């Protein structure tokens, strides 16, 4: 096995996508194993690879890591994207948790019944424009810096650019009232590691389609 982190998940975004984003932003190459059958998933459980019988699974530094938050915290700390002290880390954690709440709505959107899609889209727009994006717009305006915490690139910045692009896919004009976030999006998208991740052929996954939804349900729904 190479020294690259190895990611095991379905061939789609889901809970693994922020891990892909963070590794890519840190300039770390990784390998992926895609689950396609329930048998593959059950074998991982039987082998003892999944502590809580859940994926994502990330094999890194001799560990088999599960639980998305723990994985992301480890990667952020390992690659110096987690602040310089406890106060900065707490701020990054708060920003990340807020973004994760918004992304949870995006995550569940493809699995909603057709009749609920419009209502769910309205909810995403309302939360993004009234609860979450205003926070980051205010932070960037107040300190006048390029990044969210101490003017240093961090996990929080990676999570935010991922969220902005994910919401824009569904609501293209969502940033129209947020000039600071518009500028932030341009800055982040032009950082070399992120720019590379946004190019065609990168490990970044496309928006979930019906095939992805069917695969997830086939593997994980009893």
Description:
It is a single chain. By secondary structure, this protein is an alpha+beta fold. It has two domains: 6-79 and 198-220, 3-Layer(aba) Sandwich (Glutaredoxin), CATH 3.40.30; 86-190, Glutathione S-transferase Yfyf (Class Pi), Chain A, domain 2. It contains nine helices and four strands. A four-stranded mixed sheet has the order 2-1-3-4, covered by helices on one side. Helix 5 crosses helix 7 (179-189). The model has no long low-confidence stretch (mean pLDDT 95). Keywords: Transferase. GO terms for molecular function: glutathione transferase activity. Its EC number is 2.5.1.18. Belongs to the GST superfamily. Alpha family. It is an enzyme of class 2 (transferase).
Task: Give the overall pLDDT as a whole number.
Answer: 95
Oligomer: single chain
Task: Please indicate the count of domains.
Answer: 2
- Strand order, main sheet: write it out: 2-1-3-4
Radius of gyration: 18 Å
Task: Determine the CATH topology of the largest domain.
Answer: Glutathione S-transferase Yfyf (Class Pi), Chain A, domain 2
Figure out the total of helices: 9
- Class of the largest domain, according to the CATH hierarchy? Mainly Alpha
| Intertermini distance | 33 Å
Estimate the strand proportion: 5-15%
How would you spell out the order of helices and strands? EHEHEEHHHHHHH
The major beta sheet can be summarized as: 4 strands, mixed
- Give the low-confidence spans: none
Fraction of residues in H or I helices? 55-70%
Shape: globular
CATH architecture of the largest domain: Up-down Bundle
SS-based structural class? alpha+beta
